[in-house]
Amino acid sequence: KEWQSRKSWWIQKYGIQSELGREDTISTSKFWDDVTVSVFDAKLCEDIYTSFLPPSGSVLDPFAGGSVRGIVAEELGFDYTGIELSQEQVDANQLQSNKPTWVCGDSDDVLDTLDDKYDLIFTCPPYHDLEIYSDNPNDLSNMSWDEFLTKYKSIIQKSYDKLKDNRFFIIVVTEIRDRMTTGNYKIGKYKGFVPSTISIAEECGFDYYNDVVLINTSQQSGRMSNVYFNRNRKVASTHQNVLMFVKGNPDLATEDLQWDGTYVCEINGKKYKSFREAAIDIDPNKLVASEVKRRCGSKTKRFSGWHFTKK
Description:
This protein is α/β, with parallel strands linked by helices. The protein is built from eleven helices and 14 strands. The strands form four sheets. Strands 4-3-2-5-7-11-10 form a seven-stranded mixed β-sheet, with helices on both faces. The chain has a three-stranded antiparallel β-sheet with strand order 13-12-14. Strands 1-6 form a two-stranded antiparallel sheet. A hairpin with a 2-residue loop joins strand 8 (181-182) and strand 9 (185-186). It is elongated and about 80 Å long. Mean pLDDT is 89; it is low at 31-35.
């Protein structure tokens, strides 16, 4: 109840209409008659931004889509850059708010032109051909599965390169079913989008770190779940996977999220935000924070370059 109330608060407070710009989207799901395009969860955005971004941090979204992620980021005080292939979608987003930066173009090309490094990558890619957004040949929803994965990996690799060290990459995905038919029979097997995303991210250099399950409302799936289960034991999906990856060290990433701008120690001319950061930087296999603190307070000549930072 609290989650749904907060989602509604965001939508009403800022007049978010994330479905605008996607009126011509074709849903290929035949699970029920409702083919309304998916709208991202504003409450999830709030939780991710406040938990995985440093103060005034920056967000890169290579699959921007609608306006939700951008508006929530900017209203919370973070800088948001979203890349979206459709000019119509960008125009609709900008009508709702001119605070986020929405760049129109193919992420595979646009990412090469960005000079900045970002504090968080937070995105939700097209679910292949579950929703077909346009007839643009560069649109991922128009590609074969193999073409989709190739371009998907290229975009994730380039996003990795634009992320600062010791930062998080968070992507929302769910399983999708193959619409392939054999003769007149539709099999409907899973494509393996979730494990493909994990393996691609790891191949690009990320470490797989958390998997959060986002429970969706189940009214729609409840309408048809018995029909499909009794026909072929197909179970309706009522969740999405919020896959979390880290580039670098999660301890150092967390230090940056919580840093108040002051340094606690200086070792041989280098300042550190915490004793833990110093231990990891100097010798992560042997040194611990408590030992760094002890050495900084030592009067011995051996640790003459180890000091507490003067406030």
